[in-house]
Amino acid sequence: MRTMAISPQSPPSSSSALPPPSVALTQDELKRIAAYKAVEYVRSGMVLGLGTGSTARHAVDRIAELLRRGELSGIVGVPTSTQTHQQALALGIPLSDLDAHPSLDLAIDGADEVDSHLNLVKGRGGSLLREKMVEGVCKKFVVIVDESKLVPYLGGSGLAMPVEVVPFCWKFTAGRLRQLFEDAGCTAKLRTFPETEKPFVTDNGNYIVDLYFKKDIGDLKVASDAILRLAGVVEHGMFLDMATTVIVAGKLGVEVLDK
Ligand SMILES: O=C(CO)[C@H](O)[C@H](O)COP(=O)(O)O
């Protein structure tokens, strides 16, 4: 794995919108720096997977800005959620889908956790299924995060590892998921809206069960296979061996981690 450190004083090219170096950077500014750096990988004529979330949103904005300025042309975007679809549509980015473009040049997306092997947890925004479909068929998958997303092992943030499940008997499926990871002190919780306690429904009409672990779940491939074997599970948020590059923006600079 190659690492390259770039100081925040050397921001991505033509980035007049970035804050001056002396200013303490907020988490959102770090996300924007990572996103702008990722957009440097975009070339005219590419078919692009457009990720979802507050970090990916900056990348979509930046692509639209470069299209407007004529610095990019002939881009086709494949959005990973209705949210990103709406954003890109409003910005005038030409859009398509996997039916028309079953292979993509590049995808840019955020992540919730990144381990030292560039495995990811994704889906706290609820778009994991479409993200996995799109990002699984791109030649290059560039992940953009601020440094808070780096973890010693997946699940290590203590925050949710999302699993998309069919609504039918979701309690049964949640129970089976919990049992799978009993040794890791797993709890399984249906994702709901705090105000109404109604279930969060994905773009695909499914529910999300969030798994929380007290310990490392061990072999990720074994865990992935076990989850996917459960009838009722649609997809999980572990993205194993998919990222080709991770761009990490931190207070001390930007690091580019290549597989
Ligand atoms: O997987 C995702 C959505 O399903 C997001 O990429 C992930 O949740 C990171 O989001 P953010 O950039 O807002 O921190």
From TrEMBL:
Pathway: Carbohydrate degradation; pentose phosphate pathway; D-ribose 5-phosphate from D-ribulose 5-phosphate (non-oxidative stage): step 1/1
Catalytic function, reaction form: aldehydo-D-ribose 5-phosphate = D-ribulose 5-phosphate
Disordered: annotated segments: 1-22
CDD domains per the UniProt record, alphabetical: RPI_A (cd01398)
Coiled-coil zones: none
Enzyme class: isomerase
Lineage top rank: taxon: Eukaryota
EC annotation from Swiss-Prot or TrEMBL: 5.3.1.6
Keywords associated with the record: Isomerase
An example Gene Ontology molecular-function term: ribose-5-phosphate isomerase activity
Family of the protein in this entry: Belongs to the ribose 5-phosphate isomerase family.
PANTHER family hit by this protein: RIBOSE-5-PHOSPHATE ISOMERASE 2-RELATED, RIBOSE-5-PHOSPHATE ISOMERASE 3, CHLOROPLASTIC-RELATED
Record-given protein name: ribose-5-phosphate isomerase
Source organism per UniProt: Eucalyptus globulus (Tasmanian blue gum)
